[in-house]
Hints:
Blueprint: H1 6-9, H2 20-23, H3 37-44, H4 55-58, H5 65-73, H6 77-85, H7 91-97, H8 101-104, H9 117-130, E1 146-150, H10 154-165, E2 169-174, H11 182-185, H12 194-207, E3 210-213, H13 223-229, E4 232-235, E5 241-242, E6 255-257, H14 258-270, E7 284-288, H15 292-304, E8 308-312, H16 339-348, E9 355-359, E10 363-369, E11 381-387, E12 401-404, E13 407-410, E14 414-416, H17 423-427, E15 450-452, H18 455-458, H19 463-482
Helix pairs in contact: 3-5, 3-9, 5-6, 5-9, 6-9, 7-9, 10-19, 14-15, 15-16
Organism: Streptomyces violaceusniger
GO molecular function, one term: oxidoreductase activity, acting on the CH-NH2 group of donors, NAD or NADP as acceptor
InterPro entries: 4Fe4S_Fe-S-bd, DPD_II, FAD/NAD-bd_sf, FAD/NAD-binding_dom, Glut_synth_ssu1, Glutamate_Synthase, Helical_ferredxn
Amino acid sequence: MADPKGFLTTPRRLPPRRPVDERVRDWDEVPAPGGLLPIINAQAGRCMDCGIPFCHEGCPLGNLIPEWNDLVSRDDWLRASERLHATNNFPEFTGRLCPAPCESACVLAINQPAVTIKNVEVAIADRAWESAHVTPKPPDRLSGRTVAVIGSGPAGLAAAQQLTRAGHTVAVYERDDRAGGLLRYGIPEFKMEKRHLDRRLEQMRAEGTKFRTGVDVGTDMDAAELRARYDAVVIAVGARAWRELPVPGRELAGIHQAMEYLPMANRVLEGDYARPPITAEGKHVVIVGGGDTGADCLGTVLRQGAASVTQLDIHPRPGDERAEGEPWPTYPKIYRMSAAHEEARELAAAPEADVDARVFSATTVRFEGTAPDAERPHGGVRALRLVGPGADGGPGPGTERVLPADLVLLALGFRGPERDGGLIDQLGLELDERGTVARDASFATSAEGVFVAGDAGRGQSLIVWAIAEGRSAAAAVDRYLAGSTTLPAPVGPTDLPMTA
């Protein structure tokens, strides 16, 4: 513990963000370049090195947070990187994308602002890359066993890297034209620039992992035939079956799922389009859904130059502090403002702007449209009608409101893996009552030699859970192939996050 009084003498401090009027004109990451390093040693020194570090329980990866906090506070970046990578394959991803349940579980957070664990993590990861501390780690010997990983999101990549390093020959199959899954096409560039993903993929290739992109297993290739070619298979296809909004007018043109819209914006930056086929430019936009995906849509809409944007959340506005029923160290439902919401709020203050960042307790009852024509046989959306809550919890009389809408984006979450591709049926996989792939205590499915990791088995969750599951599934596969394993297994398939 470098400074025993650091948590008493040093206030919590976050790195500066780039000015809103600058960052909404480009797709670069929001934090100001170089803003972390001048403050991060002192912030790491706020860690209490408490006897029972609950931050370990808040993070499913079991990150050794007090250890690398102490090393950063002492300016020992190499050892900090070693301790960080001991439990996390991709800390540059989680340090940017995870909502940091570890900070909610920080002991200091009982009565003070938590340690900025997430910022320390990303600072270590970025410094490790800049200092060439991150190098390929190919296996010393090959096992002679082969594994196919279907899906290249965080769970699939974590499983593939662990199994490759254990000596197995691993091929990752990805239906998109580039590897990365939602890290590639679902996460906007302003949250994580894709160079971070690309360099990690290059590390994996140098270690021996093979990538087969543009192959939709179950459609382009029979899944049963793939299983016959490999000694084991890991399914990590995520939970891509999106939730619908079955209200009158849903058939109108101009209403799209978030995961139809977001990938197109990312593909522009990849050079696939000069202009996205679905764009918010000059349009009145309504985003239905108040979660992280909705916030990603909000930031993207603002950068595309929408005429107006409103984000609807069916839930009431959370409080600013923990509710009595959500005690420390659980992850509380409190009011949070993402960088995109900050951008919307500031832009709304401009005299010429028409931006309403969020409307809470809003239920969409129907869409209204224009008359059908040759291009839009069902007509195009022109408005969304919503209602607020009444005293009995149902729609409130007199709360109806109409919002103009040329573009509606549905960000309502996901139900489980998609069923229309043939993968599940061709392998004969059983599903559980939630519609996710059923598995036992060792991540094994009902098909011999087939395992499942990440959202495909857990349901929609956080990136840290996906990576943790990928690591645990890799340990299960290694044990299946070799009879024993030394790979870590940080979580079990039935483990749950700390929530009230």
